[in-house]
Amino acid sequence: MSDKQKKLLLLGGAHYLRPVIREAHALGLYVITCDYLPDNTAHKYSDEYRNVSILDREAVLQTARELQIDGVMSFACDPGVVTAAYVAKELGLPSPGSFESTSILQDKGRFRAFLTDNGFTVPRAKRYTDKAEALRDAASWTFPMIVKPVDCAGSKGVTRIDSAEQLPAAIERALDYSFSGAFIIEQFIQQQGYSSDTDCFVIDGRLAYCSFDEQHFDRSAENPYTPAAYAWPSSMPEAIQTELRAELQRLMTLLHIGTGVFNIETRQGTDGKAYIMECTPRGGGNRLSEVLELATGVKLIQNAVRAAVGLPVDEMSDPVYHGHWAEIILHSRVDGLFRELQIAPEAQRFVAETDLWVVPGEAIERFSGANKAIGTLVLNFPDRETMDRYMSDDSWYSVVTE
Asked: Which part of the chain is CATH 3.30.470.20?
């Protein structure tokens, strides 16, 4: 390794880091992956692995100092985002946002409070660390409500409740997934049409690339709030998209955001209002940036890697979609052994990519969260009508178990 070769530290080790490692290597970077699970997929592709918990900020910082890294990322790995911002702050490295702004964005309770304090449209919400306090407040809530951990992604630990009697169990479920022992209760905002959960890119505080998509769910899954599919472009009304883009830019300005990729969830409520639901300084899971590159030609991952090590990024503008694209998050509704993925012959012509993470005979679990996905299908349709037809009926493919 050349003394001048830049080093990139990646927190986590899931499948979603493979394209990040690939882009980093294409840029000539030396890549170190870091987490406490040595058998994770990404470690097979990096140049070096360090067995350190990404939740232990000081241990990761010590590792980063020893390695003399030039950049740090927690791409598609929510637990490491605040740690990455902390390491960047301590070592003076590039970061999409400051440690403080990242801490606000990564804590759902603090984020809701920030939105409220700054005049954004936001559901009524409250952060708790005390279960008894939350139970005492139950009488003041109007159902339905959502209960979720403040610091966990992938819809893990999320429960909708329709009565006070359901609250204790929902709190326990949220706490089971919370790293900090905190949870949030918030008003349930029913979306008009489809909510959006997709990746965007900010350059020097300017929202340069702002995408919207359609988020689909499997209502028969163990967790019906875990995204099960996505489609681009969004059918969200243009006026709502314009409003959301302006509010997202205002958010970036208020938080003094720098340069990097952001995973952003938005929706139009049935009340007609535009809501920013989540905004986190990392690439989203479920290969969102990869599919967006296929759909628009913009290299979000490469530019996120460039930003992380202080290299210049490409100029960007809002996406122009080359056709109609969709992504299916492959999953099982039952526990069992994976046998095969079946796709109807008439649908095969629309499949642009198949990315399967399991082999026949491997144990798979029911879809209780994003971490139970077993792969993805990327589809390219000739028109909106065809895409809508296939996205509204999932009978054309099947995950077969035994």
From this structure: 196-401
